TrEMBL record:
Domain Tyr recombinase: 20-206
Keywords: DNA integration, DNA recombination
InterPro entries referenced in this protein's UniProt entry, alphabetically: DNA_brk_join_enz, Integrase-like_cat_sf, Integrase_catalytic, Tyrosine_recombinase_XerCD
Keyword Nucleotide-binding attached: no
Source organism phylogeny: Bacteria, Pseudomonadati, Pseudomonadota, Betaproteobacteria, Burkholderiales
UniProt record, GO biological process: DNA integration; DNA recombination
Any GO MF annotation of the entry: DNA binding
Name of the protein in question: Integrase
Length: 207
């Protein structure tokens, strides 16, 4: 007597999706979005975008910044240092002229004080912009640039400048410091560098 069993085939959750490292933004995309945000007077988003690119911070660290973290008195600083939530290690970053200008405009428009969060939440149950809110905002930016959302995420912001610096200098140690990684291997994985390339660079990098 024949028996038939119904076999249910479950497709993998990631079928057809790009998983792993998110793509960094290209320079042309960065400037295209900057111009768009400026033209449309989206002051808060411009400050968030520029600082996200400059700081190379994880989303959780970026959204929890306070005004005092990026200012000296009533002026935006050229450099800042923050303690990373994940590693509990300090990391420094530069604040370029375009970012300082955007931050100054945002702080003035929002009438933010030194102890205020740099990006206050518009939701009552959160004191500052949440990582999910940040991810949604970034998703809209990706849409506006005509890019594929599956290829980009908040880590695209963190990786963008780091990737450019690596490609231009091949200085893996410098990128490690800028990303606040404790191990060079973490930086290698994060940038997606081929192992042989990484070893060659590492051998040439005196620490």
């Amino acid at each position: 007597m024949e028996t038939s069993t119904n076999v249910v085939h479950h497709e993998p959750w990631n079928k057809g999706k790009i998983v792993g490292q998110k793509a960094p933004f290209k320079v042309k995309d960065i400037w295209a979005l900057r111009v768009r945000l400026q033209m449309e007077g989206r002051v808060r988003e411009l400050a968030l975008f520029n600082l996200g690119i400059d700081s190379k911070l994880r989303g959780c660290d970026l959204v929890s910044l306070k005004v005092r973290d990026v200012t000296h008195g009533d002026q935006v600083a050229n450099r800042a240092i923050v303690m990373q939530h994940k590693t509990k290690r300090p990391v420094q970053f530069e604040i370029t002229a375009v970012t300082r200008e955007a931050l100054q405009a945002w702080i003035k428009q929002a009438a933010l004080k030194s102890d205020d969060f740099l990006f206050p939440s518009r939701l009552h149950d959160s004191p500052h912009l949440g990582t999910r809110q940040y991810a949604r905002i970034l998703g809209h930016w990706v849409d506006e640039l005509g890019l594929d959302r599956s290829e980009y995420g908040t880590h695209s912001m963190r990786r963008t400048k780091a990737t450019l610096i690596y490609r231009r200098t091949k200085n893996l140690r410098a990128v490690q410091l800028l990303l606040g990684h404790s191990k060079l291997e973490s930086t290698v994985r994060y940038l997606g560098i081929e192992v042989d390339d990484a070893l060659e660079i590492s051998e040439q990098t005196e620490i």
